[in-house]
Amino acid sequence: MIVVLKSNPNQKQLDNLMMWLRSMDLDIHTSEGSKHTILGLVGDTSKVDIDLISALDIVDEVKRIQEPYKNANRKFHPEDSVIDVNGVKIGGGNFQIIAGPCSVETEEQICEVAKDVKASGATLLRGGAFKPRTSPYSFQGLANEGLRLLLEAKAMTGLPIVTEIMDMSQLDLFGEVDIIQVGARNMQNFMLLKELGKTNKPILLKRGLSSTLEELLMSAEYIMAGGNEKVILCERGIRTFETYTRNTLDLSAIPVLKRLTHLPIIIDPSHSTGKAALVEPMSLAATAAGADGLIIEVHNDPQHALCDGPQSITPAAFDKLSKKIFGLRNFLTEEN
Ligand code: PEP
Ligand code: MN
Question: How far apart are CA 189 and CA 226, in angstroms?
């Protein structure tokens, strides 16, 4: 971090600043120019509040050189993280497909979809019990009953389950959930992230609709700073001026995040496009771009789905798609 001081800074204020910076275990390299003095801060600056320094009378400008996240930063953890979900590994070359309906609706629906997607190669089952809907009048999910049905599908198929938490008051209900999903709308619910940091559950953290990649990584940092390193990042489309698709899938997030972090990155082709017909091409593109996995909405009767029918693919379409994905994965790994 570089701090540019105003000319002729008040000596007492400068001494106080230096003392404060040293108290954070930082070394200070001072270089005096003809007009400005520059302080180069060396050490772990991730905990330094840049706004606090910028606000000081004697400070002209502050620039970060190092990223403000440490635990999620690849610089301090060069190896890919591999997240083990009950024996199913994600990251570090381990590619997984999470599939299932947007929402758990009935026992028959979730169990049927679970059996089908497992037979087609999915290794984790998704299904929302608590649904973050834009309208309060839309189906809000089956709540506790939805969790119970998911656990039934898990017992029947052996597939670990992924489901969304919307509030920390629900945490006690998630004891047998294998991956807790934090949805796009909650990516910056910092109180929730802090609570999840105290658990040892894998967390699927979805990128907010209008969040930068750095903001996504700072949210991961919240969870990791609490001691929970098991974070899986998910790009699920961001809001742009384009209206043809529900969101715009930012595929460049994959190679960018791969450089910045050691955490696994998966892609959601369903919420990013909003259209079933676009799920296959985007899944293949994400696989080719190096994603560690996919989360795909599959429904046995998309036309009558209570949530996100237009973007849900049928088990038959999922079967076709997963064959292509595995074919592409084989091709890519043989080539390398
Ligand atoms: C979901 O996965 O069902 C969901 C609501 O996703 P997102 O938070 O990305 O909108
Ligand atoms: Mn959905």
Answer: 15
